[in-house]
Amino acid sequence: MALLIATPADASAARPGAPGVGDAYFPLAGNGGYDVRHYDLDIRYTPATKAFVGVTSISARAEQALSSFNLDLRGFTVRSITVDGRAAAFTRDGQELTVTPRRDLRRGADFTVVVRYDGTTGQPTDNTDALYGWVSYADGAFVANEPEGASTWYPVNDHQTDKATYDFTITVPDGKTAVANGELVGRRSSRGWTTFKWHARDPMASYLSTASIGDYDLRFSRGPNGLPIIDAVDRDLPDTADDGIARTSSIISYFNDVFGRYPFSSFGAIIDDDEDAGYALETQTRPIYSGAPSESTVAHELAHQWYGNSVSPSLWKDIWLNEGFATYAEWLWEEHNGGTTAAAQFDALYARPDTASLWRNVVADPGATNLFVASVYDKGALTLQALREKIGDRSFFALLKAWYALHRNSDASTGDFIALAEKISRQPLRPFFQTWLYTAGKPVTW
Ligand code: ARG
Ligand code: ZN
Protein backbone atom coordinates (compact mmCIF):
# COMPACT_ATOMS: atom_id res chain seq x y z
CA MET A 1 0.00 0.00 0.00
CA ALA A 2 1.32 3.44 -0.86
CA LEU A 3 1.62 5.84 2.03
CA LEU A 4 1.05 9.46 1.20
CA ILE A 5 2.72 11.59 3.82
CA ALA A 6 1.83 15.26 3.75
CA THR A 7 4.95 17.34 4.20
CA PRO A 8 4.90 21.08 4.89
CA ALA A 9 6.08 21.57 1.30
CA ASP A 10 2.97 19.77 0.00
CA ALA A 11 0.68 21.82 2.14
CA SER A 12 2.15 25.15 1.13
CA ALA A 13 2.04 24.11 -2.52
CA ALA A 14 -1.78 24.18 -2.56
CA ARG A 15 -2.88 26.86 -5.01
CA PRO A 16 -5.94 27.72 -7.11
CA GLY A 17 -6.56 25.66 -10.24
CA ALA A 18 -6.31 27.61 -13.50
CA PRO A 19 -9.56 29.08 -14.92
CA GLY A 20 -8.89 27.59 -18.39
CA VAL A 21 -6.96 24.72 -19.97
CA GLY A 22 -4.99 27.07 -22.19
CA ASP A 23 -6.92 26.83 -25.45
CA ALA A 24 -6.30 30.19 -27.15
CA TYR A 25 -9.68 30.15 -28.98
CA PHE A 26 -11.60 29.87 -25.70
CA PRO A 27 -9.27 30.91 -22.89
CA LEU A 28 -11.82 30.19 -20.16
CA ALA A 29 -12.99 26.83 -21.52
CA GLY A 30 -12.14 24.00 -19.16
CA ASN A 31 -10.07 24.47 -16.03
CA GLY A 32 -6.75 23.43 -14.60
CA GLY A 33 -5.65 21.30 -11.64
CA TYR A 34 -8.00 18.33 -11.79
CA ASP A 35 -9.25 15.55 -14.02
CA VAL A 36 -12.93 14.60 -14.06
CA ARG A 37 -13.62 10.85 -14.06
CA HIS A 38 -17.40 10.87 -14.04
CA TYR A 39 -20.40 13.18 -14.24
CA ASP A 40 -23.72 12.23 -12.71
CA LEU A 41 -26.30 14.67 -14.06
CA ASP A 42 -29.74 14.83 -12.48
CA ILE A 43 -32.13 17.17 -14.29
CA ARG A 44 -35.81 17.98 -13.92
CA TYR A 45 -37.13 20.02 -16.83
CA THR A 46 -40.55 21.45 -17.61
CA PRO A 47 -40.80 22.45 -21.29
CA ALA A 48 -43.92 24.62 -20.76
CA THR A 49 -42.17 26.93 -18.29
CA LYS A 50 -38.51 26.17 -19.20
CA ALA A 51 -37.93 25.54 -15.51
CA PHE A 52 -34.71 23.59 -14.97
CA VAL A 53 -33.62 22.04 -11.67
CA GLY A 54 -30.22 20.32 -11.64
CA VAL A 55 -27.98 18.37 -9.32
CA THR A 56 -24.56 17.54 -10.76
CA SER A 57 -22.17 15.17 -9.00
CA ILE A 58 -18.62 15.21 -10.31
CA SER A 59 -15.99 12.61 -9.42
CA ALA A 60 -12.53 13.99 -10.06
CA ARG A 61 -8.87 13.62 -9.16
CA ALA A 62 -6.67 16.53 -8.12
CA GLU A 63 -3.65 16.88 -10.42
CA GLN A 64 -2.05 19.45 -8.15
CA ALA A 65 -2.59 20.48 -4.54
CA LEU A 66 -5.68 22.68 -4.80
CA SER A 67 -6.77 25.51 -2.52
CA SER A 68 -9.66 26.15 -4.92
CA PHE A 69 -10.72 25.06 -8.38
CA ASN A 70 -13.07 26.27 -11.10
CA LEU A 71 -15.98 24.81 -12.98
CA ASP A 72 -17.62 26.33 -16.08
CA LEU A 73 -21.29 27.26 -15.65
CA ARG A 74 -23.36 29.95 -17.37
CA GLY A 75 -26.61 31.25 -15.94
CA PHE A 76 -28.71 29.57 -13.22
CA THR A 77 -28.74 30.19 -9.50
CA VAL A 78 -26.30 27.97 -7.64
CA ARG A 79 -27.98 26.86 -4.41
CA SER A 80 -25.21 24.88 -2.75
CA ILE A 81 -21.94 23.09 -3.37
CA THR A 82 -20.34 20.32 -1.34
CA VAL A 83 -16.90 18.79 -1.72
CA ASP A 84 -16.63 15.30 -0.26
CA GLY A 85 -19.91 15.88 1.54
CA ARG A 86 -18.91 19.12 3.27
CA ALA A 87 -20.32 22.53 2.33
CA ALA A 88 -17.85 24.48 0.18
CA ALA A 89 -17.64 28.23 -0.44
CA PHE A 90 -18.11 29.45 -4.01
CA THR A 91 -18.04 32.61 -6.09
CA ARG A 92 -19.10 33.32 -9.66
CA ASP A 93 -17.63 35.54 -12.34
CA GLY A 94 -19.04 35.10 -15.85
CA GLN A 95 -18.71 31.44 -16.83
CA GLU A 96 -16.25 30.74 -14.01
CA LEU A 97 -17.60 29.12 -10.86
CA THR A 98 -14.82 29.04 -8.25
CA VAL A 99 -15.15 26.44 -5.50
CA THR A 100 -13.15 26.67 -2.28
CA PRO A 101 -13.36 23.45 -0.29
CA ARG A 102 -13.21 23.56 3.51
CA ARG A 103 -9.75 21.94 3.33
CA ASP A 104 -7.14 21.98 0.58
CA LEU A 105 -7.18 18.99 -1.75
CA ARG A 106 -3.94 17.02 -1.89
CA ARG A 107 -2.39 16.26 -5.26
CA GLY A 108 -3.66 12.86 -6.35
CA ALA A 109 -6.73 12.98 -4.11
CA ASP A 110 -10.03 11.69 -5.48
CA PHE A 111 -12.87 14.03 -4.60
CA THR A 112 -16.58 14.46 -5.26
CA VAL A 113 -18.27 17.78 -5.92
CA VAL A 114 -22.05 18.13 -5.77
CA VAL A 115 -23.60 21.29 -7.22
CA ARG A 116 -27.31 22.11 -6.77
CA TYR A 117 -28.61 24.75 -9.17
CA ASP A 118 -31.76 25.86 -10.93
CA GLY A 119 -33.16 28.50 -13.24
CA THR A 120 -35.09 29.18 -16.39
CA THR A 121 -33.38 28.22 -19.63
CA GLY A 122 -33.27 30.46 -22.67
CA GLN A 123 -31.92 30.19 -26.17
CA PRO A 124 -28.19 30.78 -26.03
CA THR A 125 -26.42 31.37 -29.34
CA ASP A 126 -22.72 31.28 -30.01
CA ASN A 127 -20.58 33.56 -32.12
CA THR A 128 -21.63 31.70 -35.28
CA ASP A 129 -25.34 32.27 -34.50
CA ALA A 130 -25.96 28.55 -34.62
CA LEU A 131 -27.78 26.45 -32.07
CA TYR A 132 -25.78 26.32 -28.93
CA GLY A 133 -26.07 24.58 -25.60
CA TRP A 134 -29.46 23.98 -24.01
CA VAL A 135 -31.91 25.42 -26.56
CA SER A 136 -35.48 25.58 -25.27
CA TYR A 137 -38.36 25.01 -27.66
CA ALA A 138 -42.08 24.88 -26.97
CA ASP A 139 -42.02 21.07 -27.20
CA GLY A 140 -38.77 20.39 -25.36
CA ALA A 141 -35.06 21.13 -25.52
CA PHE A 142 -32.48 20.63 -28.25
CA VAL A 143 -29.08 20.17 -26.64
CA ALA A 144 -25.92 20.52 -28.76
CA ASN A 145 -22.81 21.92 -27.11
CA GLU A 146 -20.06 22.30 -29.68
CA PRO A 147 -17.70 23.95 -28.94
CA GLU A 148 -18.26 25.05 -25.34
CA GLY A 149 -21.98 25.00 -24.63
CA ALA A 150 -22.09 22.23 -22.01
CA SER A 151 -21.69 24.99 -19.42
CA THR A 152 -25.14 26.32 -20.43
CA TRP A 153 -26.72 23.36 -18.61
CA TYR A 154 -24.30 21.82 -16.12
CA PRO A 155 -21.18 22.73 -14.16
CA VAL A 156 -18.34 21.18 -16.13
CA ASN A 157 -14.68 21.09 -17.00
CA ASP A 158 -15.66 22.16 -20.49
CA HIS A 159 -12.82 21.00 -22.74
CA GLN A 160 -12.24 17.83 -24.74
CA THR A 161 -8.86 17.22 -23.10
CA ASP A 162 -10.78 16.07 -20.01
CA LYS A 163 -13.05 13.21 -21.05
CA ALA A 164 -15.25 11.41 -18.55
CA THR A 165 -18.03 8.85 -18.31
CA TYR A 166 -21.61 10.02 -17.69
CA ASP A 167 -24.84 9.05 -16.01
CA PHE A 168 -27.99 11.01 -16.78
CA THR A 169 -31.20 11.04 -14.77
CA ILE A 170 -33.69 13.24 -16.59
CA THR A 171 -37.19 13.84 -15.31
CA VAL A 172 -39.81 15.32 -17.65
CA PRO A 173 -43.61 15.56 -17.72
CA ASP A 174 -45.30 12.28 -18.72
CA GLY A 175 -45.49 12.00 -22.51
CA LYS A 176 -42.15 13.71 -23.14
CA THR A 177 -39.05 11.63 -23.93
CA ALA A 178 -35.55 12.50 -22.71
CA VAL A 179 -32.63 11.17 -24.77
CA ALA A 180 -28.99 11.26 -23.79
CA ASN A 181 -25.76 9.49 -24.75
CA GLY A 182 -25.13 5.78 -24.29
CA GLU A 183 -27.82 3.31 -23.30
CA LEU A 184 -31.22 3.64 -21.67
CA VAL A 185 -30.92 1.91 -18.29
CA GLY A 186 -34.20 2.95 -16.66
CA ARG A 187 -37.57 4.53 -17.33
CA ARG A 188 -40.16 5.08 -14.62
CA SER A 189 -43.29 7.17 -14.28
CA SER A 190 -44.77 8.49 -11.08
CA ARG A 191 -47.21 11.30 -10.29
CA GLY A 192 -47.16 12.82 -13.76
CA TRP A 193 -43.38 12.73 -14.26
CA THR A 194 -41.27 10.26 -16.19
CA THR A 195 -37.62 9.71 -15.32
CA PHE A 196 -35.23 8.47 -18.01
CA LYS A 197 -31.83 7.12 -16.99
CA TRP A 198 -29.03 6.89 -19.54
CA HIS A 199 -25.52 5.56 -19.01
CA ALA A 200 -22.56 6.49 -21.23
CA ARG A 201 -19.73 4.18 -20.34
CA ASP A 202 -17.11 5.38 -22.84
CA PRO A 203 -14.99 8.47 -22.12
CA MET A 204 -16.69 11.49 -23.63
CA ALA A 205 -15.85 15.15 -24.25
CA SER A 206 -18.39 17.54 -22.71
CA TYR A 207 -19.22 19.14 -26.07
CA LEU A 208 -20.57 15.74 -27.18
CA SER A 209 -23.00 15.28 -24.31
CA THR A 210 -26.73 15.75 -24.85
CA ALA A 211 -29.96 15.44 -22.90
CA SER A 212 -32.53 16.32 -25.49
CA ILE A 213 -36.21 16.40 -24.65
CA GLY A 214 -39.07 16.16 -27.11
CA ASP A 215 -41.94 14.16 -28.53
CA TYR A 216 -39.70 11.27 -29.51
CA ASP A 217 -40.49 7.64 -30.18
CA LEU A 218 -37.62 5.44 -29.04
CA ARG A 219 -36.71 2.54 -31.33
CA PHE A 220 -34.33 -0.22 -30.37
CA SER A 221 -32.53 -2.42 -32.89
CA ARG A 222 -29.11 -4.01 -33.51
CA GLY A 223 -26.29 -3.16 -35.87
CA PRO A 224 -23.04 -4.93 -36.84
CA ASN A 225 -21.60 -7.25 -34.14
CA GLY A 226 -24.84 -6.83 -32.16
CA LEU A 227 -24.21 -3.12 -31.57
CA PRO A 228 -27.30 -1.63 -29.87
CA ILE A 229 -28.92 1.04 -32.04
CA ILE A 230 -31.28 3.42 -30.26
CA ASP A 231 -33.03 5.99 -32.42
CA ALA A 232 -35.27 8.80 -31.16
CA VAL A 233 -37.53 10.19 -33.87
CA ASP A 234 -39.97 13.05 -33.37
CA ARG A 235 -43.52 11.73 -33.67
CA ASP A 236 -44.57 14.83 -35.61
CA LEU A 237 -42.26 14.04 -38.54
CA PRO A 238 -43.47 12.18 -41.66
CA ASP A 239 -42.31 8.58 -42.17
CA THR A 240 -39.77 9.77 -44.73
CA ALA A 241 -37.79 11.31 -41.86
CA ASP A 242 -36.19 7.86 -41.44
CA ASP A 243 -34.83 7.64 -44.98
CA GLY A 244 -31.44 9.10 -44.07
CA ILE A 245 -30.81 6.64 -41.22
CA ALA A 246 -32.09 3.56 -43.07
CA ARG A 247 -28.58 2.42 -44.04
CA THR A 248 -26.92 3.15 -40.69
CA SER A 249 -25.78 -0.47 -40.21
CA SER A 250 -24.24 -0.65 -43.67
CA ILE A 251 -22.32 2.56 -43.09
CA ILE A 252 -21.06 1.27 -39.73
CA SER A 253 -19.89 -1.97 -41.39
CA TYR A 254 -18.02 -0.05 -44.04
CA PHE A 255 -16.39 2.33 -41.55
CA ASN A 256 -15.51 -0.65 -39.33
CA ASP A 257 -13.48 -1.97 -42.27
CA VAL A 258 -11.85 1.32 -43.23
CA PHE A 259 -11.33 3.08 -39.86
CA GLY A 260 -11.28 0.25 -37.31
CA ARG A 261 -14.02 -1.15 -35.13
CA TYR A 262 -16.76 1.31 -34.07
CA PRO A 263 -15.54 3.05 -30.88
CA PHE A 264 -18.52 3.01 -28.55
CA SER A 265 -21.13 0.89 -26.77
CA SER A 266 -24.13 1.95 -28.87
CA PHE A 267 -25.28 4.24 -31.66
CA GLY A 268 -28.43 5.89 -32.98
CA ALA A 269 -29.96 9.21 -34.00
CA ILE A 270 -32.04 11.93 -32.42
CA ILE A 271 -34.24 13.44 -35.12
CA ASP A 272 -36.13 16.55 -34.08
CA ASP A 273 -38.65 18.71 -35.92
CA ASP A 274 -37.24 22.16 -35.18
CA GLU A 275 -37.62 25.32 -37.17
CA ASP A 276 -33.84 25.68 -37.59
CA ALA A 277 -33.75 22.47 -39.65
CA GLY A 278 -30.31 21.84 -41.14
CA TYR A 279 -28.29 21.66 -37.94
CA ALA A 280 -26.54 18.42 -37.07
CA LEU A 281 -24.08 17.47 -34.35
CA GLU A 282 -22.15 14.27 -33.76
CA THR A 283 -23.21 13.95 -30.08
CA GLN A 284 -21.44 10.83 -28.86
CA THR A 285 -23.19 7.58 -29.73
CA ARG A 286 -26.29 9.58 -30.70
CA PRO A 287 -25.95 12.34 -33.30
CA ILE A 288 -28.66 14.98 -33.11
CA TYR A 289 -30.43 16.46 -36.13
CA SER A 290 -32.76 19.46 -36.02
CA GLY A 291 -34.68 17.97 -38.95
CA ALA A 292 -34.63 14.80 -41.07
CA PRO A 293 -31.00 14.20 -42.17
CA SER A 294 -29.74 13.04 -45.55
CA GLU A 295 -27.76 9.80 -45.76
CA SER A 296 -24.52 11.70 -46.38
CA THR A 297 -25.09 13.77 -43.22
CA VAL A 298 -25.67 10.54 -41.30
CA ALA A 299 -22.39 9.17 -42.72
CA HIS A 300 -20.68 12.42 -41.70
CA GLU A 301 -21.90 12.31 -38.08
CA LEU A 302 -21.13 8.59 -37.89
CA ALA A 303 -17.55 9.17 -39.08
CA HIS A 304 -17.15 11.72 -36.28
CA GLN A 305 -17.53 8.91 -33.76
CA TRP A 306 -14.00 7.86 -34.77
CA TYR A 307 -12.65 11.25 -35.85
CA GLY A 308 -13.65 13.93 -33.38
CA ASN A 309 -15.28 11.89 -30.65
CA SER A 310 -12.85 9.05 -29.94
CA VAL A 311 -9.86 10.99 -31.33
CA SER A 312 -10.63 14.58 -30.30
CA PRO A 313 -8.78 17.72 -31.37
CA SER A 314 -6.31 18.77 -28.66
CA LEU A 315 -7.10 22.42 -29.30
CA TRP A 316 -10.04 23.98 -31.12
CA LYS A 317 -7.75 25.23 -33.86
CA ASP A 318 -7.35 21.53 -34.82
CA ILE A 319 -11.06 21.35 -35.74
CA TRP A 320 -10.25 20.25 -39.31
CA LEU A 321 -9.21 16.89 -37.80
CA ASN A 322 -12.95 16.53 -37.12
CA GLU A 323 -14.60 18.24 -40.03
CA GLY A 324 -12.11 17.55 -42.83
CA PHE A 325 -12.15 13.86 -41.89
CA ALA A 326 -15.95 13.59 -41.57
CA THR A 327 -16.40 15.36 -44.91
CA TYR A 328 -13.85 13.03 -46.49
CA ALA A 329 -15.71 10.06 -44.96
CA GLU A 330 -18.87 11.20 -46.79
CA TRP A 331 -16.86 11.04 -50.00
CA LEU A 332 -15.54 7.58 -49.15
CA TRP A 333 -19.05 6.27 -48.47
CA GLU A 334 -20.25 7.70 -51.77
CA GLU A 335 -17.26 6.22 -53.62
CA HIS A 336 -17.86 2.84 -51.93
CA ASN A 337 -21.41 2.90 -53.26
CA GLY A 338 -20.28 3.37 -56.82
CA GLY A 339 -21.20 7.06 -56.85
CA THR A 340 -18.90 10.03 -57.32
CA THR A 341 -15.32 9.10 -56.44
CA ALA A 342 -13.27 11.11 -53.95
CA ALA A 343 -10.97 12.02 -56.84
CA ALA A 344 -13.94 13.46 -58.75
CA GLN A 345 -15.09 15.37 -55.63
CA PHE A 346 -11.58 16.79 -55.49
CA ASP A 347 -11.68 17.90 -59.12
CA ALA A 348 -15.07 19.54 -58.74
CA LEU A 349 -14.08 21.52 -55.65
CA TYR A 350 -10.61 22.32 -56.91
CA ALA A 351 -12.20 23.93 -59.97
CA ARG A 352 -13.77 26.61 -57.78
CA PRO A 353 -12.29 30.06 -58.37
CA ASP A 354 -9.63 31.62 -56.16
CA THR A 355 -12.30 33.80 -54.62
CA ALA A 356 -14.47 30.88 -53.42
CA SER A 357 -15.07 30.68 -49.68
CA LEU A 358 -13.33 27.33 -49.31
CA TRP A 359 -9.96 28.95 -50.02
CA ARG A 360 -10.50 31.84 -47.58
CA ASN A 361 -9.37 30.52 -44.19
CA VAL A 362 -6.30 28.74 -42.86
CA VAL A 363 -7.49 25.14 -42.42
CA ALA A 364 -5.43 24.24 -39.34
CA ASP A 365 -5.95 27.57 -37.55
CA PRO A 366 -9.14 29.19 -38.87
CA GLY A 367 -9.84 31.42 -35.86
CA ALA A 368 -12.34 31.01 -33.03
CA THR A 369 -15.25 32.49 -34.98
CA ASN A 370 -14.51 30.35 -38.05
CA LEU A 371 -14.60 26.82 -36.66
CA PHE A 372 -17.27 25.69 -39.10
CA VAL A 373 -16.36 27.48 -42.32
CA ALA A 374 -15.97 25.88 -45.75
CA SER A 375 -12.17 25.86 -45.56
CA VAL A 376 -12.28 23.61 -42.49
CA TYR A 377 -14.72 21.15 -44.06
CA ASP A 378 -13.99 21.20 -47.77
CA LYS A 379 -10.37 22.24 -47.99
CA GLY A 380 -9.78 19.90 -45.04
CA ALA A 381 -11.24 17.02 -47.07
CA LEU A 382 -9.33 18.13 -50.19
CA THR A 383 -6.15 17.96 -48.11
CA LEU A 384 -6.86 14.31 -47.34
CA GLN A 385 -7.54 13.47 -50.99
CA ALA A 386 -4.35 15.26 -52.05
CA LEU A 387 -2.49 13.31 -49.38
CA ARG A 388 -4.02 10.04 -50.60
CA GLU A 389 -2.76 10.75 -54.11
CA LYS A 390 0.65 11.74 -52.81
CA ILE A 391 1.34 8.78 -50.53
CA GLY A 392 -0.81 6.14 -52.26
CA ASP A 393 -3.88 4.22 -51.11
CA ARG A 394 -1.92 1.70 -49.09
CA SER A 395 -0.21 4.25 -46.84
CA PHE A 396 -3.24 6.51 -46.76
CA PHE A 397 -5.68 3.89 -45.49
CA ALA A 398 -3.07 2.54 -43.05
CA LEU A 399 -2.77 6.11 -41.77
CA LEU A 400 -6.55 6.51 -41.24
CA LYS A 401 -6.59 3.32 -39.17
CA ALA A 402 -3.42 4.08 -37.23
CA TRP A 403 -4.61 7.60 -36.39
CA TYR A 404 -7.68 6.13 -34.70
CA ALA A 405 -5.88 3.18 -33.11
CA LEU A 406 -3.14 5.37 -31.62
CA HIS A 407 -5.31 8.14 -30.19
CA ARG A 408 -8.66 6.52 -29.43
CA ASN A 409 -10.40 7.77 -26.28
CA SER A 410 -7.99 10.67 -26.19
CA ASP A 411 -7.03 13.79 -28.11
CA ALA A 412 -4.38 14.64 -30.69
CA SER A 413 -3.11 17.63 -32.66
CA THR A 414 -2.42 18.49 -36.29
CA GLY A 415 1.29 18.13 -35.52
CA ASP A 416 0.67 14.58 -34.32
CA PHE A 417 -1.14 13.83 -37.58
CA ILE A 418 1.65 15.22 -39.74
CA ALA A 419 4.25 13.22 -37.82
CA LEU A 420 2.25 10.02 -38.21
CA ALA A 421 1.69 10.63 -41.93
CA GLU A 422 5.45 11.05 -42.41
CA LYS A 423 6.19 7.94 -40.41
CA ILE A 424 3.74 5.70 -42.23
CA SER A 425 4.48 7.00 -45.72
CA ARG A 426 8.23 7.42 -45.09
CA GLN A 427 8.03 10.68 -46.96
CA PRO A 428 8.84 14.22 -45.84
CA LEU A 429 5.44 15.93 -45.86
CA ARG A 430 5.98 19.24 -44.08
CA PRO A 431 5.98 21.38 -47.25
CA PHE A 432 2.83 19.58 -48.43
CA PHE A 433 0.97 20.30 -45.18
CA GLN A 434 2.36 23.83 -45.06
CA THR A 435 0.68 24.48 -48.39
CA TRP A 436 -2.61 22.75 -47.65
CA LEU A 437 -3.17 23.38 -43.96
CA TYR A 438 -1.23 26.46 -42.95
CA THR A 439 -1.55 28.72 -45.99
CA ALA A 440 -4.80 30.42 -46.98
CA GLY A 441 -5.70 30.38 -50.67
CA LYS A 442 -5.89 27.81 -53.42
CA PRO A 443 -2.80 25.58 -53.59
CA VAL A 444 -1.11 25.64 -56.97
CA THR A 445 1.70 23.12 -56.57
CA TRP A 446 2.30 20.61 -53.80
N1 ARG B 1 -19.78 19.46 -35.88
C1 ARG B 1 -21.01 19.67 -36.58
C2 ARG B 1 -20.91 18.86 -37.85
O1 ARG B 1 -20.38 19.28 -38.84
C3 ARG B 1 -21.28 21.08 -36.93
C4 ARG B 1 -21.57 21.97 -35.82
C5 ARG B 1 -21.85 23.34 -36.31
N2 ARG B 1 -21.85 24.21 -35.20
C6 ARG B 1 -22.03 25.52 -35.33
N3 ARG B 1 -21.98 26.24 -34.24
N4 ARG B 1 -22.22 26.04 -36.49
O2 ARG B 1 -21.24 17.76 -37.88
ZN1 ZN C 1 -18.91 17.58 -38.84
UniProtKB/TrEMBL annotation:
| Keyword line | Hydrolase, Metal-binding, Metalloprotease, Protease, Zinc
Keyword check for Glycoprotein, yes or no: no
Q: What is its EC number?
A: 3.4.11.2
Do you know which Pfam families this protein is assigned to? Peptidase_M1, Peptidase_M1_N
Q: Which residues cross the membrane?
A: none
Domain Aminopeptidase N-like N-terminal residue range list: 38-208
Q: What does it catalyze?
A: Release of an N-terminal amino acid, Xaa-|-Yaa- from a peptide, amide or arylamide. Xaa is preferably Ala, but may be most amino acids including Pro (slow action). When a terminal hydrophobic residue is followed by a prolyl residue, the two may be released as an intact Xaa-Pro dipeptide
GO biological process assignments: proteolysis
Q: Name the coiled-coil region(s).
A: none
Q: Mind telling me which InterPro entries this protein's record contains?
A: Aminopeptidase_N-like_N, Aminopeptidase_N-like_N_sf, Peptidase_M1, Peptidase_M1_aminopeptidases, Peptidase_M1_dom, Peptidase_M4/M1_CTD_sf
The prosthetic group or cofactor this protein requires is: Zn(2+)
Q: Does the keyword Hydrolase apply?
A: yes
Checking SUPFAM superfamilies in the record gives: Leukotriene A4 hydrolase N-terminal domain (SSF63737), Metalloproteases ('zincins'), catalytic domain (SSF55486)
Domain of life from the UniProt record: Bacteria
One Gene Ontology MF term: zinc ion binding
Q: Taking every annotated instance into account, which residue ranges of this chain make up the domain Peptidase M1 membrane alanine aminopeptidase?
A: 294-436
Family label = Belongs to the peptidase M1 family.
Its recorded name reads: Aminopeptidase N
